[in-house]
Design goal:
Elements: E1 4-11, E2 14-22, H1 30-54, E3 62-66, H2 69-77, H3 90-95, H4 97-102, E4 105-109, H5 127-131
Parallel strand pairs: 3-4
Antiparallel strand pairs: 1-2
């Protein structure tokens, strides 16, 4: 199954990067869909961090908000959180594990109702559209 990824990156109070794209990989489970989404946005996050650091700015830990707890555990713990259903995704987990271990990037929980990135990939109706 190919899913959509919605990315919304902010710097202080303003949006600096937004994207909505179809994922290039076929995924087998929802956790993998979310890991691919994090991987799709990680390149822009790391580039922005590096750009700001080269300009002489202090860059605090970047927080990536995620609504799937198993994705958060796999991103933070790497291989130790994988199971039989997710053992095929190890390469995506290991690709950015250095940034998590260094403390440059942190994954935090955000309820799906508060996800701004969902605006780019889901049909919102009524009050959900007005709040976005």
């Amino acid at each position: 199954m190919k899913s959509h990824t919605g990315i919304f990156m902010t710097l202080r109070k303003g949006a600096t990067y937004t994207a909505s794209c179809k994922q290039k990989l076929n995924t087998k489970c929802y956790t993998e869909v979310e890991l691919v989404a994090v991987d799709n946005g990680m390149g822009q996050v790391l580039w922005t961090r590096h750009f700001l650091a080269v300009q002489g700015h202090h860059v605090p830990t970047t927080i990536i908000y995620q609504g799937n707890m198993s994705t958060i555990l796999m991103a933070e713990n790497g291989r130790s959180s994988s199971s039989k259903r997710t053992h095929h995704i190890k390469c995506m987990i290991l690709l950015h594990s250095g940034q998590y271990k260094k403390g440059e990037v942190k994954v935090a929980y955000c309820p799906t109702t508060n996800m701004i990135g969902d605006f780019f990939m889901k049909l919102l109706q009524g009050s959900a559209f007005k709040n976005a």
